[in-house]
Structure formats: structure tokens, C-alpha cells
């Protein structure tokens, strides 16, 4: 069984074709600058040279057509015919309260996703574009929606309700939803495998640390709390997002700076985070270089970021009443030994002892704590595409 996994952004389309009999990636790539001049596809079939196809892609339908042409191409393709594609798995960011798991896409599901677009205006519309495009190009191929929010639907009400008038929750569904659920689920399951224990017996804090970042408390296999909220803006300081702050700052800034709600939203989402503090970049590699060169604002940006992660780990350990493992994943979590070490310093009271030699690694599944550390810290590269493919296979 071969599953095509699609992750549609506003102007990009990431894809993987996976043979689910072996879980081998047959091909992968990305279409960029969709709807913009200079669009192209970077494509790589396993065992073959990478190719770049420059072509006009006015919309996601055109991009998917080019991707499918790449997959069946005589020299750089991975399959002989599109009939080999058994199903398409779509990453969908927001499923609201409707979906606590992945679903086969039908008219009712699409209608619900349209409704949820109000909650994720930057993400759900391009996700839907990919779904509609596939319907036209591959009309007989079943499709599955896998939601970033679904894994967190196990949170109790005490975790997801905000202290606002309850009728606002009833009316607008204002609540914590959480994101990166596919990643949190995957690394929690892998952690249990690596530790050789049932997931149902473990208390794990999973740290998805990239330009966008979130932390989840996974208590015996279920998410009971997570740092992102109604939108992906809440929680950690991120590349360009402010994360947690006093909500009164919003009205203060609107009055003092004369900002519209849209301008303020842009400031908090695009101009804040470590970029806003450092004034250097949203790329942690640039900030770490600047910090090494003595840039005080860069140093402070890293301290703020790491302190926020540490605070959430401690809070979630308290919420779960114990801690068996901490998992670092995503770009920064997988590749920055400095971040892992800084976050874990001071957490010795939770039974965490980082081994500097084991921690000196990038992007490789491993345990980075000492052998006598009661709480294990793991580095696990995330694999959301494989998780989406597995969910798709299970449903189809």
C-alpha cells in the first residue's frame, strides 16, 4: 500500500510518498512559491538524484499535478502509474472540537473544516485547497484528514477552559486546542518503544521546539495539557511569536501605538519572540552566533526561551504527579545540544542528569541522560509524515 502525504501551506506544498508495507519513503519534496512568480518543485526519489523543476504553479491544483508528474516520471519518478497511490493523507491544522482522531474525508468533514477556518485562517484554507485539488486530480483515491489538534482532545475541561464568561465558550468555542499533536503523539510513542515500557505506564513531557514550539504533558498515552492554546500564539516564546504575556498588554499597545487589531496580531505573530528580543533573527543559529560574539540581547533571547521551556516542564511534571521522561524534538530540540543542556540545568530535583558526551549529538534517536538518571531525557527526530501515513493506512 502506497500513501501520498500532503502538507499544504499558503504558498508551499510538502509531500512524501511512503510504501506502508515497509514504511519506506519512496519520494519526497516541496513545491514552493505557489501563486508567485518563480515557482518550483524540489523532488527526490529514493536512490535517485535530486531534481528541481521550475514551472508556473498558479494554485495548489497545478502544484499537485506537477508533483504527481514527478512521481511517475521515467527517470526521476518512484512509481509507474498514479494507480499505485492507494490513499492520500492530508495534514490539517485545526479540527476544532469535532475531531478527536483522524477521519476519512467526505462532504460533512469538508464542511466542518470550512467552519474551522475561522479558528485557523492562515492554515486551514490552504489545507482545504489541497483536499479540493486532489479530489479533482485523483477522484477515485480515498483521502484522510489528520489533525494537529486531535491528539489534544483528551485534555480535561480544567485544562482547556479559559477563565472567561462560560457563555463565550458556548458561543464561540473559545478554549485551548493545542497544536503539533501529530508530532507529540509520534515522539511519545517512540519514547515508550526506546525505553521498553508500555506508553500507558509513562508520564512524558514532549517538547516540540522549532520556529513554532509547543510542549505537551502526555500522561499514560493521553495529552492532558499543552502550551499552545486557542491559537498557536500562546505558550513558549518562539521564533517570531510572543507566547504567554499579560493580555492587558494588547489594549495598552493598541492605545499607545495606535495599532489596529490586525496590526497588533501581526506584531505578536511575526515581529516578536526571539526575533523581537534579540533584534538579530528568528533563526536560532544566528542568535547563538550573535550570543557567542557578546550580543547581550541575543544572550537574553536565548535565556528567555530556555527559561520558558524549563518552566513548562516543571509545571507539567507537577500536573501529572511525576515524570518518567522528557523528549526533545523538531529543529531546535533535535539539533541544539546547548538548548537541551540549558533547559535541563536546574531540573536535577526531577531526577534529570544530562550526560554531556551523550548530549553531543544532532538529529539522532538517543538518550542524553546518564545511566543513573531516574528521569530519562531523549532526543527523537519527529516524523509527522509517517504518523499521517500510519493514520491513513489504519482508516483505509
SSE topology sketch:
Elements: E1 2-8, E2 12-19, E3 24-32, E4 40-45, E5 51-54, H1 60-71, E6 85-92, E7 103-104, H2 107-116, H3 124-137, E8 143-147, H4 157-160, H5 166-172, H6 181-195, E9 203-209, E10 213-219, E11 222-226, H7 248-257, H8 261-270, H9 273-278, H10 284-292, H11 296-320, E12 325-329, H12 330-335, H13 337-344, H14 356-359, E13 366-367, E14 376-379, H15 384-395
Parallel strand pairs: 1-6, 6-8, 9-12, 12-14
Antiparallel strand pairs: 1-2, 2-3, 3-4, 4-5, 7-8, 9-10, 10-11, 13-14
Helix pairs in contact: 1-3, 10-11, 11-13
Structure summarized in a few sentences:
With 396 residues, the chain is α/β, with parallel strands linked by helices. It contains 15 helices and 14 strands.
On the 0 to 100 scale, the average pLDDT is: 93
The CATH class assignment of the largest domain is Alpha Beta
CATH-wise, what's the superfamily of the largest domain?
Answer: ATPase, nucleotide binding domain
Q: How far is the first residue's CA from the last residue's CA?
A: 10 Å
Q: Uncertain spans, ≥5 residues at pLDDT below 50?
A: none
The CATH architecture classification of the largest domain is 2-Layer Sandwich
Which topology of the largest domain does CATH recognise?
A: Nucleotidyltransferase, domain 5
Summarize the biggest pleated sheet.
Answer: 8 strands, mixed
Within the largest sheet, what's the order of strands?
5-4-3-2-1-6-8-7
Q: Please count the helical segments.
A: 15
Q: Please report which band the strand proportion falls in: under 5%, 5-15%, 15-25%, 25-35%, 35-45% or over 45%.
A: 15-25%
Which bin fits the share of residues in helices?
A: 25-40%
Subunit structure: Homodimer.
Active site: 148 (proton donor/acceptor)
Site (Transition state stabilizer): 180, 241
Binding site for Mg(2+): 7, 384
Amino acid at each position: 500500500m502506497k500513501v501520498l502525504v500532503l502538507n499544504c501551506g499558503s504558498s508551499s506544498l510538502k509531500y512524501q510518498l511512503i510504501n506502508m508495507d515497509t514504511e519506506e519513503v519512496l519520494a519526497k519534496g516541496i513545491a514552493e512559491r505557489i501563486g508567485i512568480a518563480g515557482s518550483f518543485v524540489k523532488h527526490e526519489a529514493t536512490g535517485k538524484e535530486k531534481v528541481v523543476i521550475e514551472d508556473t504553479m498558479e494554485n495548489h491544483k497545478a502544484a499537485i499535478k506537477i508533483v504527481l508528474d514527478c512521481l511517475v516520471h521515467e527517470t526521476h519518478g518512484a512509481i509507474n502509474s498514479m494507480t499505485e497511490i492507494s490513499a492520500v493523507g492530508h495534514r490539517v491544522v485545526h479540527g476544532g472540537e469535532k475531531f478527536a482522531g483522524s477521519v476519512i474525508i467526505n462532504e460533512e468533514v469538508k464542511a466542518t473544516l470550512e467552519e474551522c477556518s475561522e479558528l485557523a485562517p492562515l492554515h486551514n484554507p490552504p489545507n482545504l485547497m489541497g483536499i479540493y485539488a486532489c479530489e479533482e486530480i485523483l477522484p477515485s483515491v480515498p483521502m484522510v484528514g489528520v489533525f494537529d489538534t486531535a491528539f489534544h482532545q483528551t485534555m480535561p475541561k480544567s485544562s482547556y477552559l479559559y477563565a472567561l464568561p462560560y457563555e463565550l465558550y458556548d458561543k464561540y468555542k473559545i478554549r485551548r486546542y493545542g497544536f503539533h499533536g501529530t508530532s507529540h503523539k509520534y515522539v511519545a510513542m517512540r519514547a515508550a518503544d526506546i525505553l521498553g515500557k508500555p506508553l500507558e505506564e509513562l508520564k512524558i513531557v514532549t517538547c516540540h521546539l522549532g520556529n513554532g514550539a509547543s510542549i505537551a504533558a502526555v500522561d499514560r498515552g493521553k495529552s492532558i495539557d499543552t502550551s499552545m492554546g486557542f491559537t498557536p500564539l500562546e505558550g513558549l516564546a518562539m521564533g517570531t511569536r510572543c507566547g504567554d504575556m499579560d493580555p492587558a498588554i494588547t489594549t495598552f499597545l493598541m492605545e499607545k501605538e495606535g495599532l489596529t487589531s490586525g496590526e497588533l496580531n501581526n506584531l505578536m505573530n511575526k515581529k516578536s519572540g526571539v526575533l523581537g528580543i534579540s533584534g538579530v533573527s528568528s533563526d536560532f543559529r544566528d542568535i547563538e552566533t550573535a550570543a557567542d560574539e557578546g550580543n547581550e540581547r541575543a544572550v537574553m533571547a536565548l535565556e528567555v526561551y530556555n527559561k520558558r521551556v524549563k518552566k513548562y516542564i516543571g509545571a507539567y511534571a507537577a500536573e501529572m504527579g511525576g515524570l518518567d521522561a522528557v523528549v526533545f524534538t523538531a529543529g531546535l530540540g533535535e539539533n541544539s545540544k546547548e538548548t537541551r543542556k540549558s533547559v535541563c540545568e536546574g531540573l536535577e530535583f526531577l531526577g534529570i542528569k544530562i550526560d554531556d558526551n551523550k548530549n553531543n549529538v544532532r538529529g539522532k534517536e538517543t538518550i542524553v541522560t546518564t545511566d543513573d538518571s531516574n528521569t530519562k531525557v531523549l532526543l527523537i527526530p519527529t516524523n509527522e509524515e509517517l504518523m499521517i501515513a500510519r493514520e491513513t493506512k489504519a482508516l483505509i
